[in-house]
Amino acid sequence: MEMEWPLILFTFFVCLASGILLGQGVMTVLGKGKSMQLASLVSSLVALAVGGISVFFHLQHWERIFNGFGHITSGITLEFIGCVVFFVVLVVYFLMMRRAEDGMAPKWCGVLAIIMGVAMPAITGDSYLMEAIPVWDTFLLPVYYVFNAVFFGGLSVLVIAALTKCDDVNDTAIWLAIGGGVATAVALIAYAVFINSLGGVYSDITYYFDPTLPDSSMIDVQEDFVGTVLAGSNAPLFWIGAVIVGVALPVVAAFMAKRALAGGKQQQVLPLAGAGLACALAGGICWRMILYMVAVSIFALY
């Protein structure tokens, strides 16, 4: 399947926005992160806006998007509702923060932020579940998005905290990043194994050609698509890009930031967290690219 960059960027920035809001929510519930609240809200809003704008480039006639809203359970409708509710939660959090005498939003705002931070990537992942594309039709997709959001959130909070000199959140943010990284790695490998097992779905056909590309050669689904993630043409992008660069290096960076804090080297936290976040974001893009490169629709076969 041809890569749809607007959708790749949409899911990417949704997870980033959700992770930042979720991370700030965790800190709020714990009574931490007072001085970084505004920076977190602005960062989350910007990421959500970029993702929302990106998705419009997927449509040749974006004004027709409103026709899809007539079906309340359609994926695009649920995503739209999720974005609106997400924005409302950001506004409520901001107003409660400004209203508070001590400048700290109440803990129930943190709970709302956590709920929204988990719900939005889950809703986004659920909207891509479709029987016509077996590679996407698994609960592992929304699970990956949720874990990815937690991973992004922990690293993002660590970066924002370092920039705003909010030192009381460092330990919690590091453990959030490490936990999210380990969970993301498990989801990634489980997802890759699942994709590798999908050859049987096409067993009745084995070989076929795309009817929209009659001049193209026959395709072996297992060899050319679903079998390429663990060992094949997409294996380097998976193991090096998504796993090593996207997960292993950021987790190592988080551990190094923890050691730096223990050794009183606060100045090392920002470069370590920044490098870890950059690697995690790159790995997230790599995996989303793979999900398109191995997606073979069975709709065209019948």
Automatic annotation (TrEMBL):
GO terms for cellular component: membrane. InterPro entries: DmsC. GO terms for biological process: anaerobic electron transport chain. It comes from the Bacteria. Keywords: Membrane, Transmembrane, Transmembrane helix. The chain crosses the membrane at residues 6-26, 38-59, 71-96, 108-130, 142-161, 173-194, 237-257, 269-301. Pfam families: DmsC. Signal peptide: none annotated. This is Uncharacterized protein. The lineage of its organism: Bacteria, Bacillati, Actinomycetota, Coriobacteriia, Eggerthellales.
